[in-house]
């Protein structure tokens, strides 16, 4: 049932990606709505690095098949036609019938020789060479799968960042539109006060200037949103003519794991670390392969031969069965050099694992601290926004009552927009840092 559900999930993901690609290919007028998970699926389908890694995995699987075939018998058939004295005496066939012995002549051409040979060989003992090569082929398949996982995790992180960037810019655009609306309302209020003679012209001009600045910034925010959408479409491999709408929104989901839990997860699940550990095993098998050159090589051979002066050459037959054992006595240090090289490669692979483990701990620590900092900043920003909203409300009331000044309203308005923008940035950072932490843990 679990396997069936897995296949259903894979098929549904492929179906979704196919539907999206077809929609983009035919240029349908309706907008394309994508959730974050939808976007990740499409990115997987379109990314060339994923496709190349999958092709490498297929290659590794075929090599595994070849390694398994090394344990089985190899059978070779050879057919030989020999004209033994045509080049020496100038003898030649008088007709095609002579070659096949189909004519009436009783004279058999002695210069024809036809041989059929069937040879079979089965390896019985190779000093562990075949076994090690099979283990290496299995490890190569595992490494290929880990490489796909590593590429997909990085691709998923990049897609999440691009998706969240669009959401952030969408919020920034809405915030800027909110500022423009507030300033338009305030400008209308100052116009009334100016017409009534309650304020001087400088206050009216200041309100007009601030409104124009906000409208100009609104155009900038719209442009930044358009750029973020283009980068998002590029990340997914979608045509830039597509109209994309995002379903999800930025939210807050806390991670309750401790730092030690995160580090332990990274040591257990990071695909790059698992690759390097597997590399130690793989190069370790090179030592066995090299040492096998100093061990006996034993095989069972069988040979059957048929020959005649007429096609198909099956009249005279003989067969032999042999047990063949060979050992390398002297190779001028070649095998020893291969063993030493393999041992050094193992030591180097172990050092690389240690270095990766140290880097891994550093990355998890940094990502964990980033999440904590963003969470604190998010909480603080939310509290500041509430205070800024209250201050703006009070300032507006004081201005309407003639107690406050236009400058107070402008400053309060500017502060409210800034703290709200800080909150949006903190919300984006918190979500991105969470994704970075999960990738550092190897569970993204």
Summarize the entry for a quick read.
The protein has 444 residues and is of the alpha+beta class. Helix content is 68%, strand content 12%.
Structure description:
The longest helix is centred in the middle third of the chain and has 67 residues, at 129-195. Strands 2-3-5-6 form a four-stranded antiparallel β-sheet, with no helix packed on it. A two-stranded parallel ribbon has the order 1-4. The chain has eleven helices and six strands. It starts with a helix and ends with a helix. It has a single domain, classed as Outer membrane efflux proteins (OEP), CATH 1.20.1600. The chain is of the alpha+beta class and 444 residues long.
Secondary-structure map with pairings?
Blueprint: H1 2-25, E1 32-34, H2 36-46, H3 48-69, E2 74-83, H4 86-89, H5 96-100, E3 112-125, H6 129-195, H7 201-236, E4 244-246, H8 259-269, H9 271-291, E5 297-308, E6 316-326, H10 334-400, H11 406-441
Helix pairs in contact: 1-2, 2-6, 3-6, 6-7, 6-9, 6-11, 8-10, 8-11, 9-10, 10-11
């Amino acid at each position: 049932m679990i396997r069936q559900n897995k296949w259903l999930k894979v098929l549904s993901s492929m179906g979704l990606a196919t539907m999206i690609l077809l929609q983009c290919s035919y240029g349908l007028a309706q907008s394309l709505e994508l959730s974050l998970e939808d976007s990740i699926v499409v990115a997987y389908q379109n990314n060339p690095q994923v496709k190349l890694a999958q092709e490498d995995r297929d290659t590794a699987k075929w090599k595994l098949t070849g390694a398994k075939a090394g344990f089985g018998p190899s059978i070779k058939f050879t057919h030989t036609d020999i004209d033994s004295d045509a080049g020496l005496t100038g003898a030649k066939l008088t007709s095609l019938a002579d070659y096949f012995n189909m004519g009436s002549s009783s004279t058999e051409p002695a210069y024809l020789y036809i041989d059929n040979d069937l040879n079979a060989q089965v390896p019985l003992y190779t000093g562990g060479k075949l076994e090690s090569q099979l283990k290496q082929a299995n490890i190569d398949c595992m490494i290929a799968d880990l490489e796909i996982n590593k590429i997909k995790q990085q691709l998923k992180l990049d897609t999440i960042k691009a998706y969240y960037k669009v959401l952030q810019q969408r919020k920034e655009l809405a915030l800027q539109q909110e500022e423009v609306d507030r300033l338009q309302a305030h400008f209308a209020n100052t116009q009334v006060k100016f017409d009534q003679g309650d304020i001087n012209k400088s206050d009216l001009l200041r309100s007009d200037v601030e409104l124009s600045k906000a409208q100009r910034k609104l155009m900038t925010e719209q442009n930044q949103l358009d750029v973020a959408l283009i980068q998002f479409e590029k990340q997914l491999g979608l045509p830039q003519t597509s109209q994309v709408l995002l379903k999800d929104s930025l939210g807050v989901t806390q991670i309750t794991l401790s730092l030690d839990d995160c580090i332990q997860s990274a040591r257990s699940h990071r695909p790059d670390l698992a690759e390097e550990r597997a590399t130690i095993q793989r190069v370790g098998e090179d030592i066995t392969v090299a040492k096998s050159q100093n061990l006996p090589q034993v095989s069972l051979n069988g040979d059957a031969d048929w020959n005649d002066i007429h096609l198909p050459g099956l009249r005279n037959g003989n067969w032999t069965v042999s047990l063949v054992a060979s050992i390398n006595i002297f190779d001028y240090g070649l095998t020893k050099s291969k063993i030493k090289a393999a041992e050094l490669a193992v030591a180097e692979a172990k050092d690389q694992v240690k270095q990766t483990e140290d880097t891994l701990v550093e990355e998890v620590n940094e990502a964990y601290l980033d999440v904590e900092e963003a969470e604190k900043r998010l909480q603080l920003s939310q509290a500041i926004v509430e205070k800024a909203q209250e201050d703006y409300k009070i300032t507006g009331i004081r201005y309407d009552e003639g107690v406050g000044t236009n400058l107070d309203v402008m400053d309060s308005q500017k502060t409210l927009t800034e703290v709200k923008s800080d909150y949006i940035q903190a919300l984006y950072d918190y979500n991105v840092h969470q994704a970075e932490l999960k990738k550092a843990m190897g569970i993204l």
